[in-house]
Fold this sequence. Notes:
disordered C terminus; globular; single chain; mainly alpha; 79% helix; 477 residues; Growth Hormone, Chain: A
Amino acid sequence: MEGRRNLVLFSVLIGTLMSAIDTTIVILALPTITSYFKADLFTSIWIIIIYLLIVAVLTTQLGGLGDIFGRGKIFNAGFLIFIAGSAASGFSPGIIYLIAFRGVQAVGAALMQANSNAIIADYFGPQERGKAFGYTSMGWSIGGTLGIVLGGIITTFLGWQYIFFINIPIGLFGFILGIRYIRDNNKREAKIDFVGMGLLTAILSFISYGATDVAGRGVNSFNMLLISLGILLLVPFIIYERYPEDPVIKLDAFKVHSLSLSLTASLMQALGYLSVIFLLIMYLQGIRGYNPLEASLLLVPGYIISSLISPKMGKLSDRIGAPIVASVGIFLMAVAVLIYLELQVNTAIIVLIIASIISGIGGAMFWPSNSSAVMSSAPKRLYGSISGLLRTLSSVGTLLSYVISITIASISVPRYVAFEVFLGESSLTGGVSRQFLAGIHSALWLCLAFLILAGITSFIRGSRMKEGTDLDTQVSS
């Protein structure tokens, strides 16, 4: 039994790893892809955005499908779709085709991400989940690092197509493990809430697309209209979701103190922490003059530390309580941001590396323990829905963090210059670099505010939670 559970965990880790890699792997390859297809930057940037957008839109719904049809079946389908999207992306004959096939990839990633936490909760009891989530968090940390580093190395020595082809053998291995060891032991009779799915898709699409357009083109009537429509649609969505037998999101779940605060902490952490990573890349490339590969390597120590200690921190959260460990982790990230706020044009790079390590320790503490806190507040019948909702909030935070980074940091320089700096196509000197640094500092202050809010939210949810107790009491079957 123990061996089977470890193989299930390994399959989930592979899916998590691939999803995380492809969130970042395109960043350093984007200038090469843009030149290869003779595309403009504002078109090719959608190779990154489409992936983030679709994952953010679909994850909650696909987690609910795992509850209905079986998490193993849905998770393994995600492997196959992701592999197909990766192969098609590598063979893309044009930029529009590549954007479309990245969308296919994202559907597969959403299927895996939506059900990964729920599968862990199926196979590991509440006293063991922190350690198990520690390994999947390690997958996110390693994946983020590999995506950034491999994107530069593979593009330089093999060609940009191979950043997608690399997923094929890895994905097939994970799929074989999943088919063999992950069982559908959670299926239940239910109806799919198509209206709710449509409304939620429209809400997230309008808000995400509008916010992304703000980053690319600045504020205009079109993107403000989209964002406004998305916000307005929340009203009919909330009203409608009270009536279906199996709604997309059980709104009553948000009446549970510990669950709602854990989910909020996840969103705030994603908004703050991932924005910091984007801003540091712009600092290193635009102000310090490092090329994309050199810049990414300077951030690796923090990721390595995070990857190595995530399982231990997850195990610690099992012993002393997930909220305590998660809250300390958030505040360590905030300390790192305070150090980043002291960065100047000629600050010693060792300062940035030390802050990166502190931030990595904080991430290793937060991710597994917060995931454990969320799933421990959910009843078994809703594992997929709650797992999907957690991933959706994290994905929305990732997408908006990119928007925040580009928009605020580019206040003092032209927007196209901020894009070129982010992609490593140009660096700044003299007064312009100091102006850009001021913009980065402004964005970092906002990141710090998000992280402090996440820390407070995490701290006040309580020290310990019993599995599904509150939600089973407050949410009817």
